[in-house]
Amino acid sequence: MSGPDTCGSQAQTASAPAAIAVEHIVKRYGDFEAVKDVSFSVAEGEIFGLLGPNGAGKSTLIRMMTTLIPVTGGRAIVAGHDVARDSDAVRRMIGVIPQALTSDPDLTVEENLSIYAKLYSVPRAQREKNIAEVLEAVDLSKWRGAQVKTLSGGMRRRVELARGLVHNPRIFFLDEPTTGLDPVSRIAVWEMLNNLKTTRNLTMLLTTHYMEEADKLCDRIAIVDHGTLVALGTPAELKHSVPGANVVEVHFSRETAEWGARLEKLDGVTSVQAESAGFYRVLTSSGSKTTMQLVEMAASLGETLTSLSVQNTTLDDVFVHYTGRQLRDELVKPPAFSLPPRPGAQP
Ligand SMILES: Nc1ncnc2c1ncn2[C@@H]1O[C@H](COP(=O)(O)OP(=O)(O)OP(=O)(O)O)[C@@H](O)[C@H]1O
Ligand SMILES: [Mg+2]
After folding, report:
1. Region for residue 45 given its phi and psi (left: phi exceeds 0; alpha: psi -120 to 50; beta: otherwise)
2. Which of 221, 241, 327, 335 is 20 to 30 Å apart from 67, CA to CA?
């Protein structure tokens, strides 16, 4: 691909310098290029999401931006400081939640936070106050004396959130903050992050594998694949950038070899994915037209539909579009010159 599909405007303006500016950044491990010439910027107060399949380079990008590993090429400016030249200044301005849980299970919640506050040289008088505030923010005040190993996975994640905030950072990096959490705990973390963004005026950069999370939480999203930035925009811009504004899901009562080809011929259809026997996911620029024609087609053939639904394009569709994952099942619409007769005509 020649470059990312940048959907819409950049959030950075002349009056507000970017909280994070990544410029042509590269990371090589020996001969292997894990991150290839990636550029983006994150505006102050934004929640910015990095999406991508396993091994895409998300954690590597975060590690470079948070000074944990050196940059091979290009540069990253975080809170106005170059990560390579002024790493101490960067570290003072950021909070980091790594992909793996790293709080000490044998220590109490408060002890874990206290160690971090000392590491970040938070003055003694300020420490107590900061710890009380962040524990309140993640709803763990009652558990301050509990050993971390006695807590549930969701609570442990919240300990990590609190720990990452105990020195009052301006920019918060979170690598998969909700992986492994049940849906209720995940939503609780989203609410906390949204509250933190508002009450502490934090800028956040997070990675996630959950499309719903990215959609609900992030102001803008960058999709990374094989170390390259392949798309960048707001969730709405990314959805509009995918051919087909709606997704029609149809389940026929029986499978025939022709369903895929017949669906491709309907008005507005841009792609057809066979999900399982008789079950198809159809991307279309006109959900209503395609649905009407589909019902007419089934009736004229004497076939029954077991289910039919029309939805707007989701971030899952965006992800599939830009990363090519699941494309093996996709049937590509034939070019215009070979278009078959209008729907309704006898096959
Ligand atoms: N220290 C290292 N030495 C060599 N290769 C590495 C190293 N760290 C990461 N890689 C490789 O770099 C690529 C990107 O890894 P990275 O951890 O950034 O991916 P990711 O997008 O965070 O994936 P995941 O979703 O699985 O967390 C992978 O192919 C990985 O194997
Ligand atoms: Mg990772």
Report:
1. left
2. 221
How much is the pTM? 0.82
Quick: pLDDT tens for 161-201: 999 999 999 999 999 999 888 888 888 888 989 988 888 88
Q: Are 35 and 71 in contact (CB under 8 A)?
A: no
The two beta strands, 220-225 and 5-6, are unpaired
**pLDDT higher than 50, residue 346:** no
The atom of ligand 1 lying closest to the CA of 27 is: 12
CB-based pocket (< 6 A), ligand 1:
29, 32, 34, 52, 54-60, 99
Percent of the chain with pLDDT over 70: 89
- Decide which of 1.10.3660.10, 1.20.920.10, 3.40.50.300, 3.90.1310.10 is the CATH code for 5-233: 3.40.50.300
Smallest CA separation from ligand 1 atom 26, residue:
54
Q: Which amino acid residue places its CA nearest to atom 22 of ligand 1?
A: 59
